[in-house]
C-alpha cells in the first residue's frame, strides 16, 4: 500500500518538481518576469488543452490487447500533450517572434511545464480505481520528456528548411507512436522494450533539450 502511495506522489509531482528544479537551477534571474508570465499563461491554458485532449482521446475505439493500442495512447496523450500547448502558446506569443533561441526555449519550457503540470493529478483521478505501472511510472516520465523536449524540437523546426520540417514531422509522428506502444508492451510483458523506449526519450531530453536551456541570452530580448 505504501509503495502505491509513493507512486501516486511520483505521478502528481514528477513534472512540477522537475520544472521547479530547472527554473531555479538554469533559468537566468534576468528572465524571472518572462518565466512568471509563461507559467501563469501555461497554467491558464491547461484547462482547454485538457478538454481538447480528452475529446481527441475519445475518437478511436479502445484496442486494448492489440499493438494498435499505440494509436489510442498516441491520440489520448502523446499527440495532444505535444502539440496543444504549442498552439496555446501561439495564442499569447507569435511563433515566429524574433527572440534569442535560449530565451525562447526556456520560456516555452516554462509554458509547457505549467500547462502539463496539473495533468498528473487529473490522471490520478482517472485511474484511481485501477492503478498500473504505466500510469504511475511510465506516463509521468513521458509527459516530462514531452514538456522538456518539445521546446527544443520546436526551436530546431522553426529554423529548418521546408524539406527538413517535413522529415522532422515524420520523425515526431514515428517517435510518438513508439512511445504510445509502451503501454501495450507493458501489458504484453515486453517490459524491457518499453524501458528502452522510455530511456531513448530520456536521452533525447538530455542531448537535445538541456543544451538549449543552459544557453544564455547574448543580449536583452523582448519578453512581451
How would you describe the overall organization of this protein?
There is one protein chain. Helices cover 78% and strands 0% of the residues. It contains 8 helices and no strands. The chain has helices at residues 2-26, 32-57, 69-92, 101-116, 119-126, 133-158, 162-187, 191-214. The chain has one domain (2-214). It is an all-alpha fold. Mean pLDDT is 84; it is low at 217-224.
Keywords:
8 helices, 224 residues, globular, 78% helix
Chain-averaged pLDDT: 84
The outline comes out as: globular
Helices and strands, in order, run as: HHHHHHHH
How many domain units?
1
DSSP summary, beta strand count? 0
The largest pleated sheet is described as:
none
CA-based gyration radius? 17 Å
Tally of separate helices: 8
Q: How widely separated are the two ends? A: 48 Å
Structural class: mainly alpha
Weakly predicted, low-confidence segments = 217-224
Helix content: over 70%
Question: How large is the share of residues in beta strands?
Answer: under 5%
Amino acid at each position: 500500500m505504501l509503495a502505491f502511495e509513493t507512486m501516486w506522489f511520483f505521478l502528481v509531482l514528477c513534472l512540477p518538481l522537475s520544472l521547479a528544479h530547472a527554473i531555479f537551477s538554469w533559468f537566468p534571474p534576468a528572465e524571472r518576469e518572462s518565466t512568471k508570465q509563461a507559467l501563469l499563461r501555461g497554467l491558464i491554458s491547461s484547462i482547454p488543452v485538457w478538454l481538447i485532449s480528452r475529446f481527441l482521446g475519445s475518437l478511436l475505439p479502445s484496442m486494448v490487447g492489440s499493438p494498435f493500442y499505440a494509436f489510442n495512447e498516441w491520440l489520448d496523450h502523446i499527440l495532444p500533450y505535444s502539440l496543444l500547448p504549442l498552439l496555446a502558446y501561439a495564442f499569447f506569443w507569435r511563433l515566429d517572434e524574433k527572440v534569442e533561441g535560449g530565451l525562447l526555449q526556456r520560456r516555452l519550457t516554462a509554458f509547457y511545464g505549467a500547462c502539463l503540470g496539473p495533468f498528473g493529478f487529473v490522471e490520478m483521478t482517472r485511474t484511481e480505481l485501477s492503478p498500473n505501472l504505466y500510469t504511475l511510472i511510465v506516463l509521468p516520465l513521458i509527459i516530462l520528456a514531452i514538456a522538456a523536449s518539445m521546446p527544443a524540437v520546436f526551436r530546431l523546426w522553426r529554423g529548418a528548411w521546408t524539406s527538413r520540417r517535413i522529415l522532422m514531422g515524420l520523425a515526431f509522428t514515428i517517435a510518438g507512436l513508439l512511445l504510445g506502444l509502451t503501454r501495450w508492451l507493458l501489458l504484453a510483458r515486453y517490459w524491457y522494450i518499453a524501458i528502452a523506449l522510455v530511456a531513448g526519450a530520456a536521452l533525447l531530453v538530455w542531448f537535445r533539450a538541456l543544451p538549449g536551456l543552459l544557453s544564455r541570452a547574448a543580449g536583452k530580448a523582448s519578453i512581451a
